[in-house]
Amino acid sequence: MRGARAVGGRGARRFSFGGTWEVAATPEAVRQVAVDLERYPEWWPQVIAVAALGPDDARVLCRSALPYTLDLVLHAVSRDLPTIEVAISGDLDGCARWTLAENGTGTIMEFAEDVVATGFLGWSAYVAAPVLRWNHARMMAAGAAGLAARARSR
Fold this sequence. Notes:
About 30% of the residues lie in helices and about 45% in strands. By secondary structure, it is α+β, with helices and mostly antiparallel strands. The chain has one domain (about 1-150): 2-Layer Sandwich (Alpha-D-Glucose-1,6-Bisphosphate, Chain A, domain 4), CATH 3.30.530.20. Strands 1-2-8-7-6-5-4-3 form an eight-stranded antiparallel sheet. A hairpin with a 5-residue loop joins strand 1 and strand 2. The longest helix is centred in the C-terminal third of the chain and has 34 residues, at about 120-150.
């Protein structure tokens, strides 16, 4: 996971995350796993619950090492290759995007997330930004491993 930076205004803190995952599966197999939000709790340990809110929306609860559960609503912006994108609202506001490309042995996934932490999370980020970035990195590492295993098994 590439580094993250934090900037923000009063009561809110902006974070930009990026990284690259390599998955030994075809881009289509990876895409199928990535767009099936309701199954995330089966392979991503920090995604503790997902509830469909409609064909393009889901409520997602995430909890990593810190004693805080993120409550998010994800809205599908794109499910088609090469880019998968969701708009994020709730404890975070912004977007997350994956760009998938075949690399000969599988798929390279370029990840970009730009969000603003709001409310309690936004205020705490002024003091705890390094811990929040560490927590995010742990969650993403587990997600990379889980997605790779799930996509290979398809």
